[in-house]
């Protein structure tokens, strides 16, 4: 998807290499939405190939897709565009399963894409918000590892939160 | 790759996640598993908020108890930020909050935010431990209902790292000036309602942002800050006490200044060198002080002033050329201001390099409604573009317009927006100016359409606003009265006039200007359609069509399977240029009176004829005197057809089309050479796509079979395509059969899909664009679809456009 950059402007293209060898060619303006890449670009200067050993190609692609969307909209600070952007973000996170969410978050965190981390963490928070303990366990497939009776004891103490 | 769960995230990421959650959610999380419990107790961002429990005392107490316990069980885990929003009503509550603050201070808190509501408990004293917290970078303390206290601790206030300090409703025993000057790194300071001292002296060499709201009991203020960039001052006192108040400013680097309240005696130590933007909004004016202030800001680039300030200009106290650098000026005046024109001339003199002027008119008798007058102008001699938008019919602004017309020698374009109807008096008056007639002045309409609730038994409802631009000068006087009605009223009165079809415009171009009611096209179902048209006629290309459509109100929900149709039809009619002044414009708009069958029949007939020869089309038109949307003509080899006809159209510059719905606003500009195009935009809360455009096999890769079009399955197959923002182009060589337009189907989905479909005169779809939109009201979606349609229209070089909206709302 990233190789489909149609604009033939003078913007510099960067090659990003994921852990599984997949490479992405993206415009500099897009990649520098990610703090880590921005730093590398500034430090290394002419280096055009950046290896990202901690990120899988699939998730790097998704991260870059997000970057592209937001880099484009940076140039056009229209209010309507902001709105479109918000919807885009919402849909971007809407159907993510937990595994993807986890890896995306890790990738975004590793690449210092602060805005993306915020978006994804907010999504996770919304999965927790207002849910009962059992629902949280079910959602995240967590097993209670408290000793018998321990949980009940805590619950008793904070009964207001479990109504 | 192993399946990982979000609970395996690194702690810094999970901290961010938990920071979005309330303490109640956190309390639940502590029971889920040991790992989560551990994470919860090391959370560095804490937000204690009792707002939702304030009315329930027992819950309030339970929450407090939990937080106490929580803070205790955190042990020594560091706290980065703590925000406490709490209602303090007795001593023990105060002790609790103080306990939390102490705990936070002990754990090296960096950001503290206190939002304390004092109720029956009249006093809250900020603990001394906070005032000596060395790690603190930002401190926000706000009290509500009453005044809290900050008392100087024995060891002195000590915030070596503090960069941001905001305090509200606080009694400070120590002189605030000393406090501020002891903060070496302070960059942002916000003071509001500080009680305790009558004289405030702020002196800081690091301060960048300062916002002060003074109260009546402060008499002397002195601010000296070299690096200050943003300064906002509000000082309210009795008008008779002007003389007793003094303000001394030594802030040379301020670039943005906001001034409100009353004006004290001013003393500017050094002038503002870099002032970029200034808002001056005094409450009552002592002119000497205001004059001094205005002179002090003479290097400003952009200035906002309010009508009281104009007095100073009026009396000629500001010398010509005072504001040499002023490029933008915003003036807000009350509607009844009488001398605006003369004052404006004086202002023009004081600011020779003004580029942009914006006048906002607050009309006195029309609360909340603001009339805007925006004049964009260059220097007097090179004035190029003027835009004026006004509600009222002339008056003072008219004088300004005339003045501009006389003096601006290089006027390139002037656009005047009016609410319909176009005031003929003004138009004539302006056109009387020689310069105005030289293709420079354009009139625009601003249409505010209040969508009418039409309740009928039918499945179909229709609201139409038709805006047609015609020559205002040729308008007949007898119609003016009618024209003066508001659009809204017009629409409402449609019912009474139902059955009335649009008038057709006679050939002699002595057409009326005003609002016309276009009744239902279907005789037997008069309540199902309501259309209102606003027409004004123009004779030459110089009348530019600038249109602003604002729709308010909600769409109607019909009974049961209510279906409604809201149509905004924009028709630009520009008869031939110069030579052919009296080109006949025959038009009948809206659904014809005739029974539907006739129309359909005519339509088919037309199509046949069209296929045979394009030229016949025009004759057909004249012969019938009727044009319907579906049978509209194209003016050239016609890929797109609109329902209005156009004779040898000269270029139309639709400069700006703004569609505003209450929630969504979009602007498209500039649109040039919009051609004749029918764009159907349909949106739906439930994703209803008008399938009549999608039946082509090649288009969607589905084999259509009669009776099978509208099945759910069919849409499912198309759904993914459409939701991907599919944009397909279909060649115009296809032919279609007649379709049953009323059939449709729905697809429950939370997404709104806006689509714009452009069929040509014969029905074949030429282009389709769709886009996805989040769940929102139909009006918003409609606007989105309209925007899409206009973008589509703009990208095609057609001369006429008809934008038609279909909104089918399916009740949940």
From TrEMBL, chain A:
Pfam families: Skp1, Skp1_POZ. The keyword Signal does not apply. The keyword Flavoprotein does not apply. GO terms for molecular function: kinase activity. Residues 14-72 form the SKP1 component POZ domain. SUPFAM superfamilies: POZ domain, Skp1 dimerisation domain-like. Gene3D superfamilies: Potassium Channel Kv1.1, Chain A. GO terms for biological process: jasmonic acid mediated signaling pathway; protein ubiquitination; ubiquitin-dependent protein catabolic process. Pathway: Protein modification; protein ubiquitination. Belongs to the SKP1 family. Part of a SCF (SKP1-cullin-F-box) protein ligase complex. This is SKP1-like protein. It comes from Trema orientale (Charcoal tree). The lineage of its organism: Eukaryota, Viridiplantae, Streptophyta, Embryophyta, Tracheophyta.
From TrEMBL, chain B:
Residues 3-55 form the F-box domain. Residues 596-623 form a coiled coil. This is F-box domain containing protein. Keywords: Coiled coil. The keyword Coiled coil applies. Pfam families: F-box-like (PF12937), LRR_At5g56370 (PF24758). CDD domains: F-box_SF.
């Amino acid at each position: 998807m990233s190789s489909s950059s149609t604009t033939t402007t003078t913007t510099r293209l960067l090659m990003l290499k994921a852990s599984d060898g997949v490479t992405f060619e993206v415009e500099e303006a897009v990649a520098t939405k990610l703090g880590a890449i921005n730093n590398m670009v500034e430090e290394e200067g002419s280096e055009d190939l950046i290896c990202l050993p901690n990120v899988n190609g699939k998730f790097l692609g998704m991260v870059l897709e997000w970057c592209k969307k937001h880099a484009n909209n940076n140039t056009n600070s229209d209010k309507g565009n902001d709105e479109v952007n918000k919807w885009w973000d919402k849909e971007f996170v809407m159907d993510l399963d937990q595994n993807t969410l986890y890896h995306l978050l890790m990738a975004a965190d590793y690449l210092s894409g602060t805005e993306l981390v915020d978006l994804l963490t907010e999504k996770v928070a919304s999965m927790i918000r207002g849910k009962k303990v059992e629902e949280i366990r079910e959602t995240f497939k967590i097993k209670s590892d408290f000793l018998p009776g321990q949980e009940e004891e805590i619950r008793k103490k904070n009964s207001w939160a479990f109504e | 790759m192993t399946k990982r769960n979000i609970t395996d995230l690194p702690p810094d990421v999970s901290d961010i996640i938990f920071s979005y959650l309330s303490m109640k959610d956190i309390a639940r999380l502590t029971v889920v598993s040991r790992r989560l419990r551990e994470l919860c107790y090391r959370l560095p961002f804490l937000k204690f908020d009792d707002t939702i429990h304030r009315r329930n005392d027992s819950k309030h107490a339970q929450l407090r108890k939990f937080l106490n316990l929580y803070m205790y069980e955190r042990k020594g885990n560091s706290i980065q930020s703590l925000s406490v929003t709490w209602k303090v009503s007795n001593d023990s509550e105060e002790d609790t909050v103080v306990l939390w603050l102490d705990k936070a201070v002990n754990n090296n808190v960096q950001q503290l935010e206190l939002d304390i509501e004092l109720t029956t408990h009249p006093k809250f004293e900020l603990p001394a431990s906070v005032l000596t917290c060395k790690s603190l970078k930002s401190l926000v303390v706000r009290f509500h209902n009453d005044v809290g206290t900050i008392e100087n601790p024995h060891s002195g206030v000590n915030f070596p790292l503090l960069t941001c300090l905001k305090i509200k409703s606080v009694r400070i025993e120590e002189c605030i000036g000393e406090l501020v000057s002891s903060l070496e790194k302070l960059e942002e300071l916000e003071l509001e309602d500080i009680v305790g001292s009558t004289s405030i002296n702020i002196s800081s060499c690091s301060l960048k942002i300062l916002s002060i709201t003074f109260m009546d009991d402060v008499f002397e203020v002195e601010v000296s800050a070299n690096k200050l960039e943003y300064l906002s001052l509000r000082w309210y006192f009795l008008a008779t006490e002007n003389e007793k108040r003094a303000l001394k400013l030594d802030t040379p680097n301020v670039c943005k200044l906001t001034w409100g309240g009353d004006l004290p005696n001013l003393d500017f130590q050094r002038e503002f060198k870099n002032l970029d933007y200034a808002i001056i909004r005094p409450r009552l004016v002592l002119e000497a002080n205001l004059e001094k202030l205005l002179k002090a800001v003479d290097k400003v680039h952009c200035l906002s002033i309010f009508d009281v300030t104009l007095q100073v200009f009026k009396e000629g106290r500001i010398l010509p050329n005072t504001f040499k650098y002023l490029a933008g000026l915003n003036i807000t005046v009350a509607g009844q201001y009488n001398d605006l024109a003369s004052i404006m001339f004086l202002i023009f003199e004081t600011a020779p390099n003004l580029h942009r002027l914006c006048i906002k008119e607050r009309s006195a008798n029309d609360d909340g409604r603001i009339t805007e007058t925006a004049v964009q102008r260059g220097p007097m001699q090179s004035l190029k573009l003027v835009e004026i938008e006004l509600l009222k019919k002339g008056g003072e602004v008219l004088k300004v317009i005339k003045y501009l017309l006389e003096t601006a020698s290089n006027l390139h374009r002037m656009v005047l927006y009016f609410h319909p109807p176009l005031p003929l008096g003004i138009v004539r008056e302006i056109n009387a100016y020689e310069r105005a007639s030289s293709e420079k002045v354009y009139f625009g309409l601003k249409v505010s359409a209040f969508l009418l609730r039409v309740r009928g038994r039918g499945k179909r409802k229709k609201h139409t606003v038709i805006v047609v631009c015609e020559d205002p000068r040729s308008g007949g006087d007898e119609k003016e009265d009618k024209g003066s009605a508001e659009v809204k009223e017009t629409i409402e009165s449609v019912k009474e006039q139902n059955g009335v079809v649009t008038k057709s415009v006679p050939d002699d171009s002595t057409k009326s200007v005003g609002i016309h009611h276009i009744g239902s096209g279907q005789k037997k179902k008069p309540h199902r359609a309501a259309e209102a048209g606003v027409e004004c006629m123009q004779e030459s290309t110089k009348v530019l069509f600038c249109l602003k459509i604002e729709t308010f109100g909600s769409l109607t929900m019909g009974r049961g399977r209510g279906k409604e149709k809201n149509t905004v039809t924009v028709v630009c009619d520009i008869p031939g240029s110069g030579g052919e002044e009296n080109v006949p414009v025959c038009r009948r708009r809206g659904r014809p009176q005739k029974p539907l069958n006739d129309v359909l029949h005519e339509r088919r007939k037309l199509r046949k004829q069209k296929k045979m020869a394009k030229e016949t089309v025009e004759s057909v038109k004249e012969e019938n005197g009727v044009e319907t949307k579906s049978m509209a003509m194209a003016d050239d080899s016609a890929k797109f057809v609109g329902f209005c006809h156009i004779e040898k159209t000269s270029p139309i510059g639709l400069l700006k089309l703004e569609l505003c719905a209450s929630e969504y606003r979009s602007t498209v500009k500039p649109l040039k050479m919009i051609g004749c195009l029918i764009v159907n935009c349909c949106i739906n809360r439930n994703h209803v796509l008008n399938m009549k455009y999608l039946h082509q096999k090649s288009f969607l890769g589905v084999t259509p079979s009669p009776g099978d079009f509208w099945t759910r399955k069919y849409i499912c197959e198309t759904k993914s395509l459409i939701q991907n923002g599919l944009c397909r182009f279909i060649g115009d060589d296809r032919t279609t059969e007649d379709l049953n337009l009323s059939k449709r189907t729905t697809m429950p989905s939370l997404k709104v899909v806006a689509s714009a479909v452009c069929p040509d005169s014969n029905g074949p779809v030429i282009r389709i664009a769709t886009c996805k939109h989040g769940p929102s009201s139909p009006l918003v979606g409609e606007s989105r679809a309209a925007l899409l349609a206009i973008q589509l229209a703009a990208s095609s070089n057609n001369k006429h456009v008809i934008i038609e909206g279909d909104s089918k709302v399916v009740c949940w």
